[in-house]
Amino acid sequence: xxxxxxxxxxxxxxxxxxxxxxxxxxxxxxxxxxxxxxGKTTILRLASGLSLPDSGEIMRDESLRQSFVxxxxxLLPWYDALGNILAIANDRERAQYYLREIGLGEDMHKxxxxxxxxxxxRLSIARALAFGGDVFFLDEPLRELDKKTALLVHDLLKKxxxxxxxxxxxxxxxxxxxxxxxxxxxx
Length: 187
Fold this sequence. Notes:
The chain is about 35% helix and about 25% strand. With about 190 residues, it is of the alpha/beta class. It has a single domain, classed as P-loop containing nucleotide triphosphate hydrolases (Rossmann fold). The chain has a five-stranded parallel sheet with strand order 5-6-7-3-8, sandwiched between helices. Helix 3 crosses helix 4. The longest helix has 15 residues. The protein is globular. It starts with a strand and ends with a strand.
């Protein structure tokens, strides 16, 4: 369980969150839904421990293994697709499995500069899945994906993250309704 209790956060004099509280239960897939700038990514960063609040309390088990899909793909340009996964998840079979599952099996030896935006996004998702974890933090994981590919990735996320704690940021209600056990609308 991860809990934010009466947290407040400001950036550059602008109040992003004020006395905000939420609990993410173990094994629950929660989508944070809302327009840009409403605090979705801030909540994700607080829950993961990447950011600290100005005030309030965050309760989380520090021993939990965390896996991320950031808004930016954060790929290593000197590694091919397979190498980008092996850099953090040293299991070749598992890495190849997720590359195939996400539709990049034929592209595993391509470098990031040889991949389209949607392919880079899928590689970021495959990397997070291959790394594994107890908690998955997904910040706009389906951006840059066409509708057909997004449905493939929906199915993969639903299958692979069943029973895991997942906090996903999106601004698209359909994504939340397809994946989430619970949706929190912000803003």
